[in-house]
Write a structure and sequence with these properties.
mainly beta; 4-stranded antiparallel sheet; 5-stranded mixed sheet; Jelly Rolls
């Protein structure tokens, strides 16, 4: 049986609009990822006590896991109106941490990171294997969207 899913283009639009002292600043940037056919989108709760896996990347497509070599786009948004979430991007060896404040989003249009403790020297980029989160003061809802080939 052949799939009835028709691949489509993902369009990501980032718009900045800022007016200061009657002067308008900003820009609109579009990025198009052509002919993509898989998407995962979910809202989930992240606790303060246990680091929660938001999504994994591996070699086989399965529940909660996308194929790393098919990676296209990942967005995570903190839906909380007060508390932040600590996000950890892990590549199997190294972790990169980022604070995602209330209402903020993180866009990842590439799945490679390098994070080296106590060093100012670049090592090598490696595919992200997991994106994990922990809330700071109270559980937070986060939404993610992941698009792969």
């Amino acid at each position: 049986m052949a799939s009835t899913v028709t691949a489509a283009d993902l369009t990501v639009t980032i718009t900045e609009s800022y007016t200061l002292n009657s002067v308008v600043y900003g820009n609109t940037v579009n990025k198009i990822f052509s002919s993509k056919g898989q998407v995962d989108q979910r809202i989930m709760s992240v606790s303060t006590t246990t680091e929660r896996t938001l999504f994994n990347f591996g070699s086989v497509d399965s529940a909660g896991t996308g194929v790393a070599s098919n990676y296209v786009y990942f967005r995570v948004t903190n839906l909380d109106d007060t508390n932040f979430v600590s996000l950890r991007l892990y590549n199997g060896d190294d972790s990169f941490w980022i604070k995602l404040a209330a209402g903020e989003s993180l866009l990842l249009m590439n799945n490679e990171i390098d994070a080296i403790a106590d060093s100012s020297t670049f090592g090598s980029f490696e595919d992200i294997t997991s994106i994990l989160g922990t809330a700071n003061a109270a559980a937070c809802d986060v939404e993610f969207m992941c698009v792969t080939a």
